[in-house]
Amino acid sequence: MKFLPLNVVTAALLSALCYSANSHAQSIEQRLSALEQRLSELEKQLAAKDKKIAALEREQKRTQVVANNAKVSAIEAQQVLFNDTTRPSHRFAAPAKSIRLSDSTTTLQLGGQIWLDAIYNHGEMTNRAGFQTSSIAYDDNTTNDNTLLSAGQSKLSFRSHTPTHYGDMTTRFEFDMFDDQGNADFHLTHLWGELGNWGAGQTFSGFMDINSFPNIIDYWGPTAMVFTRQPQIRYRTEQSASGATWMVTMERSDADLAFPRDIDPATLSFDEQNDWPDATLSYQQRFTDGYIKAALLLRSLGFETSTQEDSVTGWGINVTGNYALDKAHLLKFQFATGEGIARYINDPCCSIYSAITGGSDAGLNSNGDLQAIGISGGFVYLDKQWSERFTSSLGLSYVDVDNLATQHARAFNNSLYSTINLIWNPTMMSRLGVELQYGEVENFAGEQADNLRLQTSFGFKY
Fold first, then answer.
1. Which of 54, 60, 104, 335 has its CA 20 to 30 A from that of 178?
2. Burial class (CB in 10 A: 0-12, 13-18, 19+), 196
3. Domain carrying residue 149
4. Do the domain assignments include residue 408?
């Protein structure tokens, strides 16, 4: 047997090993290249999945926002009905035209109206822009102009609504441009906030009922209507299943004292004593065809001079309501009576002669003691719906003061107020009305005066 030389065998083995190593190296490189390519593909797939996940998350978030908005809108829609039918407050649920703040549950609403009154007077009414019977002068030629164009009933309102764990938080900032001489001037009406059942700020008194205000175009309103806006703290219950609502307020006190007839007002020097806020308690009961509301008022009236100090308690009752006789006829009414409450009532609060007569809340009697002055009044109005676009309102109001013997001869005693109108609403947000207004006033001495006014108004709401 022949053997190959050792060097030949060695060379063959080395060649085989080199070939095997080269083949193995090439295989590793190919595998690494394949792995790198696969890794690149996986990275691309992962990036694509990340994009899909991000898109799904955005869609889910958008869907959740839409769902939340729909839920809030549904709740707010219920609140609109709730507020309109059971809670005559200034809380509101944001309608579609409201602005919802981004990344917030707060909504803002802008509202108001542009208004023009065209007025013709046949009498000596010194309040040229509002039909205020206690502003009728007893002397001839007190006023010069019989006609007036005024934009004073124009107004602007800002409201907000925010759901919270303590209940809805709402605010209202509103002003109109009313001035009794017909000049457009800033006139703050509401500066109000509520959280749940609590409220604070300036708004309608708890002793009054704005829902009984008739469908008229006169700014001032019935002579006997309890009407005042003032700073207060309020608590109101939710309406019960039976339709009952309670409300309690603590309000700013301001005694409107009468001047003695034998003393020159210019020589009077005294300080009013308003040691306690005015307190009101009201109860409202709703039923199928309307509601009835009863409100109580309790006040402390006083004064102090260098030689005398005295105080007296004032009280009042105000009963108001609405009653639908049928779909086309709505009856609105009010009756108020009490002692020391004249400041809360439309006409006695603001007589043209108050600079010499003082007010009608309380005054010194014949014995020199402070005495609350009695007052009673009311109104009845019938609102008529002729058609979808035309309405009318007809009514009468009367108020009477039980004057003290010591009051000034021209102190307010009684007044009558009556109106009739026809209003056309060409759209939901506009109106044109014509109204005939008549009023009489009488003072403590028996002097009488009257005024007849024709008013045409144009309104555009927003």
1. 335
2. middle
3. 114-461
4. yes
Nearest residue to 74 via CA among 44, 94, 50: 94
Structural domains counted in the chain: 1
| Predicted structure pTM score | 0.77
Which band of pLDDT confidence, cut at 50, 70 and 90, is reported for residue 249? very high
DSSP 423-453: EEEEETTEEEEEEEEEEEEEETT--EEEEEE
Say yes or no to pLDDT of 25 above 80. Answer: no
Q: How far apart are the C-alpha atoms of 338 and 351, rounded to whole Å? A: 19
The length of the chain is 462
pLDDT band at 26 (very low <50, low <70, confident <90, very high): low
Give the span between the Cα atoms of 133 and 433, in whole angstroms: 21
More confident: 392 or 66: 392
Identify the bridge partners of residue 85 per DSSP, sorted by sequence position: none
Give a yes or no: residue 57 inside a domain.
no
Residue of 280 and 266 predicted with greater confidence: 280
pLDDT at 14: 53
Contacts of 357 (CB under 8 A, 6+ apart): 258, 259, 351, 407, 408, 410, 411, 412
User: Closest Cα to residue 209, out of 299, 335, 330, 323?
Assistant: 335
Q: According to the model, what pLDDT value does residue 27 have?
A: 72
CATH number reported for the structural domain that contains residue 348 in this entry: 2.40.160.10
Would 71 be classed as within a structural domain?
Answer: no
Closest CA relative to residue 234, chosen from 172, 318, 186, 174: 172
Q: Which two tokens stand for residue 126?
A: 């010194």
Non-local CB neighbours of 336 within 8 Å, separated by 6+ positions: 224, 226, 316, 317, 318, 319, 345, 375, 376, 377, 378
Type of residue at 18: C
Neighbours of 81 (CB within 10 A): 10
Alpha carbons 256 and 375: distance in angstroms, whole number: 14
Whether residue 23 is predicted with pLDDT greater than 60 in this model: the reply is no
